[in-house]
Each structure stands twice: as structure tokens, then as C-alpha cells.
Amino acid sequence: MASLDLINQAPVGTKLWILHLGILECDDGWFIRAANASSLSNPNPVHKRRRLVMLGILIEHPTEGLILYETGGGEDYPNLAGTHVQDVFSRVDYDKSMNLDEQIALTGHKIEDVKMVIIGHLHLDHSGGLDHFRGKNIPVHVHELELKHAFYSVATKTDLGVYLPHYLTFDINWVPFHGAYYEIAPGINLHHAPGHTPGLTIMQVNLKESGTWIFTSDQYHVKENFQDSIPQGWLARDHDAWVRSHQMIKGLQKRTNAKVLLGHCLDTIKELGVEFAPTTYK
């Protein structure tokens, strides 16, 4: 019996591309619990660092038009993030080919063709490119809890740095969704997965030829979080919620045999054998 999760199939002609929006280099302790921690026997361990990819997902949909899931950090990330954030979450080896508009151009489209944006969560390295959609009336879908938390965090400065004011503006056409699950388009399901942030949302895409894909945003930064069930490190927020979301995603993957692309993991992309744009998946 086919899983009920597969009922909502994308129409014939749906295409998907994986966009490479830059590389970050950071301390492993941000992403893996107890990474780089000292001990009595090893009080000064070598601090391992890791290179992470920033991703966007572009979908050409026969009935909904061009859909973009997440936007990367934006072209001016180092300046807008500020000296301290750029030093900690450092964008490295960047060139203009990683700009959002340049990556979309590799698919044969223009950024002006985008009809809908979906945001997994509103941290700067996933939503910094939203400045492209200011004043454009393009619907930007995000979970209501994420939208509320992000604006609150900036307004009160309680989590300023990971959320930034330059893309949390009133001239973006914010469209919140509510609850645990939303069939936003034929073949595209959104699942609320709190833990890393209150309103984090993963995207499930059921394609005819390549099968089901799950894009987790930062529920998982790296493969150890997903494959070994190791929670995140210093970037963790709500541990209990993260565990519940992890169980939900593990079950979804098992039922659908999905390819699971994590928020930043280059190793997982290599292990799955998937390629960045212009390679197309149907």
C-alpha cells in the first residue's frame, strides 16, 4: 500500500534545481552537540572547523509557476551580517556566480520570473536574499510562529544577529501558514518542524521520475544530526521540539524513501550523488 504522504504528486512537467548560494566556514561546536569540548584528559582539543553550503531550491511548476525555497545569505552577506557574525559564520571563497540571480539564470529563468517564495526559517543565511523581493508583491510563505519570532527577535534585540532587520520589512508580501502541515501546491507539502527555531518548516516534493525529496532547512545542519541523531550544538534552541521533529522526519523519509537534503551538508549532497544547477530533476 502506497504511503498517504505520496498522494499529493507533482504534475508532469515539474522540474527542480538545487542552487549553490555560497560557502560558510564555522566551528563544529555550532552544529554538533559537544563537538570540540574539552575534557580532563584533553583540556585543549583541536577545534575542528567545517565548510557548509548555503542552498536554495528552485521549482518550475506547471500550475503555480516558478517557486523558490530559501534565498541564501544575499550578495552583501559579510557587510550586512557585520564584522562579528562574518568572523564566526564566515562566508568564504565567494564569487558572483553564487549570487541568487546568477544561480537562477543557470536554470534558464530570471529572478523576476519567481512567483512564490517559501522560507524554511528566517535566519540570515537562509533569508538574506529576500531583499530581491521587497516591494514586489511576490508572496513569501513562512510559518506564522517563525514570522512572529523573527520580528520579535529583531525588535527586542533578543536574537539579533541570526535574524537581521534588512529583510524583516513591511514591504515584503508575508503570507503566513498555520499548523503542522500544509499542501501548498500540487506535489509540494510543508511540515512544521520546530526545534532549531520555533517556526522552522521543511519542504517535501513528490516528483514523477526522481521520487520524493525532503529539504530540511536547518532542522539538520550536517549529516551527524540526521544520520546519527546527534542534536545540534550551540545553535540548538528547543531540544524537546527538535527530538519530536527528528522523529517526524525520520518517519516521513522511511515511508516515502525520500532523498533528504540537509540545511548545509556538502557531504550529504556528495553521498546522494545529486548535483547543483544547471542539472535538472523531474
TrEMBL record:
Domain of life from the UniProt record: Eukaryota
Keyword Zinc part of the UniProt annotation: yes
Cofactor or coenzyme needed: Zn(2+)
Matches recorded under SUPFAM superfamilies: Metallo-hydrolase/oxidoreductase
InterPro entries: MBL_superfamily_lactonases, Metallo-B-lactamas, RibonucZ/Hydroxyglut_hydro
Domain Metallo-beta-lactamase: 53-264
GO molecular function: hydrolase activity; metal ion binding
Record keywords, A-Z: Hydrolase, Metal-binding, Zinc
Pfam families referenced in this protein's UniProt entry, alphabetically: Lactamase_B
SMART domains: Lactamase_B
Family the entry assigns: Belongs to the metallo-beta-lactamase superfamily.
PANTHER family membership: 102 KBASES UNSTABLE REGION: FROM 1 TO 119443, QUORUM-QUENCHING LACTONASE YTNP-RELATED-RELATED
Name this protein carries in UniProt: Metallo-beta-lactamase domain-containing protein
Organism: Alternaria tenuissima
